[in-house]
Amino acid sequence: MKKRFTNLFACLIAVAFALPGFAQSKYEMQKIHKREVQKRILEMRGQAVENHELLDQMAQPTKGVRAAFKQAMQPVAVPQMLKTPLTARQIEMLGSCLMEDYGTLVSFSPATTIILNKLAQYGYDNVFTGGSALIGDTYYGMAVQNLAGMTMLTLYVTDLNTLKSEEKYVFEKTLMATETAKDPNSNTVFGQFYNADMTKLEWGIIDYVAQKRTTIKASDAVM
Q: Which residues form the signal peptide (predicted)?
């Protein structure tokens, strides 16, 4: 009995001496683990990057909402003043005028500044004051001259491809017009013309090729 008690007492003493060492060893292991955890946290913070994938997964946009928003937010062009003013559509027109006392066929475009392009030259003081018209590639112009109290009519027929002109003397005063206009959908030329004795004006249609004119009705214009 005494021997058993001695052995038990020896075991208690051994345990008493072993516990502080075991506790010390466990404490050291906890400290080491804590340092490892802190080290891992610092490393993870140093390698951390922004990642919004989780947010995108948490809040998926409704289908079509983003596209509609982008479409509504298209950039708007800021209006600016034009560098040059608006002008009429470019139209080439033909006419006659005096250049150094000679009748001249010119072309021009309606604009703020008119620039005349010289195409052909006619006789002295010959301008188309008796009417004119462009039919196809041929330009017809009636020149009127007063010589010794007599009214002389000359029809100039100009081929615009060659710019060569042919003169035709006209004796029928009813072919002389104060103004003419061609139907853009046909070759019909309307105008206001003189009657045979040049005492009145009347509306009519002229055929420059055949040198004939028909009367529509009398004009109310005062001579």
A: 1-23
For residue 147, give the amino acid letter.
Answer: L
Classify 184 as helix, strand or coil: coil
Please report whether residue 66 resides in a domain: no
Q: Does residue 114 sit within a domain?
A: no
Residue 113, domain member (yes or no):
no
Q: Is residue 203 part of a domain?
A: yes
Q: What percent of the chain has pLDDT over 70?
A: 59
The residue to which tokens 């009214």 are assigned: 151
Distance in angstroms (rounded) separating the CA atoms of residues 56 and 54: 5
Q: What span, in angstroms and rounded, lies between the C-alpha atoms of 93 and 86?
A: 19
pLDDT of 27 above 50: yes
pTM of the shown model:
0.58
CA of 111: how far to CAs of 108, 133, 167, in Å? 9, 22, 32
Scan for tokens 């001249």, then name that residue.
104
Q: Which domain holds residue 37?
A: 1-46
Give the pLDDT of residue 69.
Answer: 46
H or E element at residue 65 = helix 65-72
For residue 15, list its beta bridge partners.
Answer: none
Q: How confident is the model at residue 201 (pLDDT cuts 50, 70, 90)?
A: very high
